[in-house]
Amino acid sequence: MTSDTLFSKIAKREIPADIVHETDRALAFRDIAPQAPVHVLVVPKTIIPRIAEASPEQAELLGHLLLVARDVAAKLGLDATGYRLVINNGSDGGETVPHLHVHLLGGRPLAWPPG
Ligand code: AMP
Q1: Which atom of ligand 1 lies closest to the CA of 86?
Q2: Ligand 1 pocket: which of 20, 30, 32, 53 to mutate (most atoms <8 Å of CB)?
Q3: Domain count, the chain
Q4: Active site residues
Q5: What domain range is 38 assigned to?
Q6: What mean pLDDT comes out for the span 41-68?
Q7: Is 98 within the bounds of a domain?
Q8: What mean pLDDT comes out for the span 57-63?
Q9: Residue 1 pLDDT class (50, 70, 90 cuts)
C-alpha cells in the first residue's frame, strides 16, 4: 500500500489548504508559496509519485488533471490573459513533493525560458 503524502493528506482534509475546486478524482488548491498572483496545484486523489511513474492505465486520469487545470484557470478569470501549466519531475525538474501535481500559474506575464 502506498504511504500518504502531503497532498493526499490535504485531499483527505487532514491538512488544511485553500481548496478552489474538486472533482471525484482531483483536487485543486492554492500553493502555499505562490509564484504568481494565481498559483494553484491540481493533484490526483490517488497517489502517482511523478509523471515518470504514471502508467498507460492512468492516461484518462492524467487528461482529467489537465482539464481540471483548464477549468480552474477559467474559474479564476485567467482565460483572457493566459496562464501556464507546469509539471516538475525529479530533482533537476524542481520536484519537491512526490505526489504528481500540475502547477497553474497566471495573473502576470511569465518569462520563458524558465530558470
Ligand atoms: P514541486 O516543487 O513541483 O514539487 O511543487 C511543490 C509545491 O507544493 C511548491 O510550489 C510548494 O510551495 C507547494 N506546497 C508545499 N506544501 C504545501 C502546502 N501545505 N499547501 C499548499 N502548497 C504546498
Answers
A1: 3
A2: 32
A3: 1
A4: 101
A5: 6-106
A6: 98
A7: yes
A8: 98
A9: low
